[in-house]
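Please review this one:
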Amino acid sequence: MRIIERRIKMDPIETALAFVKAINAKNIDDMYELMTADHTFVDADGAEHCGNDRMCSGWKDYFSFVPDFHIDVAETFVRDNIVMMNGKASGTFTRDGTLNPEYSWTVPAAWRVVVDDDRIVVWQLYVNPELMRPILERLDEATSGKDVES
């Protein structure tokens, strides 16, 4: 089901917020439509992951691992075609689909979004992964040695 309403032209903030809305809805089709073919995701460690097909696959995997992932945008700033957003990201790590509050997290986050012609060229995440690492380690300890579907 489509959640974004495509208009003739969106401004960069509208495009960035439409992508957030698609992420929060786990709507891979809308996310794909909002990415350029050469879309680049820059993760918190600075690694670049390129291509909209690759990123759709990556988001599907991420939504399996963090099925309740959610972005809350508090502020947006724009200069030309670059949008900066800050707020929080939250979710629950899982290996088997069970949402155990023990593995939930909420972290401050920011995103740099480069927009061209209503499409996301670059989606860059700024977050401190160290805040989530102990939670992930607890999950790994709890699930080590168990038969868990990936």
